């Protein structure tokens, strides 16, 4: 397969002024007529259009049908000579939506037609200049059987519709905004609509429509409310107003990812639209709110201002993730949201960046673009956008955003353009920020302190490294910190020399020091006592912190730091130290222990009645397994998953035993007989209650709570938490509850996905047999991405016991499933194969076994370029 490089980017030779599409829908033979007006922009007269999986019916230039010898056709493109300054092409192609299991381009899902064009799906609909810098005006006529397609939708405004003979009807949509073809969408089928409306700040009425299947009409309230909140928030926070009279969201069951921001016509995975308390958990509700917001926010950051090429993906994704994070933070709890985002980054992005697929947020090359919709481009990208806000403050960031839209509305631009807008609006030189975009890896910042009691100075030195070395271009790292008095918990006052004042200033949550060099130090003057350092408050940069903090200091910070992130982080660090000690203990055949420091921190957090309930829940939660793995790898240790499983088993059990009475008391206090509400307080109550339940379930005397809670059937959050708690038990009652759940919910695919996922992550001794039986289950379908991910995705990522089974059978199973899936849906297969990429982290025996599966995959010789890219890069 061919590799595409950023350095090879060339501007367009031809522009497409307008595109006029006609779709004559048919399940297996849809005819697409594409009329394009071209303008030549350079003296290059060869026009090369992208096209894949197409049957070319005819091609006409300025009214003349072209012969075979007038153009050159390959599997991926169509080339013709166009010396004219302006000309019109009409290309007719035939496609087969029903046979399209790749779910890219035009396909059918539950009998409805829908499209997915980002990144390069439009070329499977018709021949086109399928690149984001080709902006054009689209008009779309859809013709279809009236009984089968009550609704006919595309982007923009409906300008015409009517009946046709033979039981057909048609609709014509016109999009008044120029757009790249990746934002094109078409939906047709028998869908029902839920309507709402929103009045914009400038008093325009926008019709809001959610299209779903009839049986889901009762699950749309939350999505509709989320959409209205998003529209209002974007007006208030960024002054951004919606620009069409209608905003449509369609929920489909078969979708490769979460959702898609097509102009005026979002297509969503139904998982991110449908919810009611009986079927969806708090996490699902929160996911819907944030994905609805994310796609809505793309209307400005992505659609109005789009990307010049796919190497700029983080321009729209990093920025839009940042915006949806800020939105959720305002809707729920800023402190909780920040911690959850950091957890996600560390558990998923850090390993990606430390593995063979590591790439900068602006990748420099790709084989299959769809493989670069990654945690790095999205989540690390969002962290980099956040750096601008940390450096410039909220107001400065807003000024930069305003200038960005003033300058680039209606254009396809680059990450440099964004940076320059931020810099110019704030009269600051931000060129060093470029280094964050082009270097892969998680930077490490080592901090040391030295207190001179005589001179009352506290010297802080900072050192930054990347991938273990100091050969990188130094990064601009905002370090937000404070110094706390060990005696009275308050921040210590200090002064700075004049020179230091330019590098270190007051921030909302402490002091902001701008680290710009590989090595740098800062001297705080007039410091009355040697304080405790509260570093990287609010996680002010996406780095690994290396700071030799004493455990006493950590216990203190874990109990009273006013920055909720550092408070949580300190207890996590104590937990991590304890976990690592225990991993070593298992490997040296020593007894495991619960460290007294970690226990102290747990105790003070459990006892703190003023602490926010959700933060309390986060405080008593052990770090994720993947974060521990990350830490072990960072120390150069190979991972033996058996030890890790033993350590987590021991820790959970011991914590439950030691804190039984407070956990029980809290569990009981958190009970509520009120009806389900989706708000910050109610969520926090359930979160803490279910965390306690999980610990209590380890204790024979407290096991009945699981069944009681399950039997109450109050809402899916609580029901599912009860099932989660039962998971480790190989018991008759667990099986009975699972069977109950299945019978109650097997008509609801999204709930059934949970049932599958729960079992795919079951780490009992029969984990492997269980997962094998799941893919044989009558309700398992390779063609449905949600189902494939619930079983195969979950197994690879969350079932350490089964996937990493010492026999290597878990590896063999997943690899053979990837091969099957790759023939059906390469994009999803490429995601499912990713746990293999981490093979170098594991003990030698496991490494060998994982690697041999990767080799087998390559040797199969039949991989899609999606899977090929991941597998081949992992073997390098
Ligand atoms: N932009 C889409 C993702 C498209 C993924 C293509 N493989 C959804 C989003 O990020 O909002
Ligand atoms: Zn996005």
TrEMBL record:
Protein name in UniProt: Aminopeptidase N
SUPFAM superfamilies: Leukotriene A4 hydrolase N-terminal domain (SSF63737), Metalloproteases ('zincins'), catalytic domain (SSF55486)
Domain of life: Bacteria
Gene Ontology MF term list: alanyl aminopeptidase activity; metallopeptidase activity; zinc ion binding
Residue ranges occupied by any Aminopeptidase N-like N-terminal domain in the UniProt entry: 20-183
Lineage, opening ranks: Bacteria, Pseudomonadati, Pseudomonadota, Gammaproteobacteria, Thiotrichales
Keywords: Aminopeptidase, Hydrolase, Metal-binding, Metalloprotease, Protease, Zinc
Domain Peptidase M1 alanyl aminopeptidase C-terminal: 552-876
Domain Peptidase M1 membrane alanine aminopeptidase: 223-435
Organism: Hydrogenovibrio marinus
PANTHER family (UniProt xref): PUROMYCIN-SENSITIVE AMINOPEPTIDASE (PTHR46322:SF1)
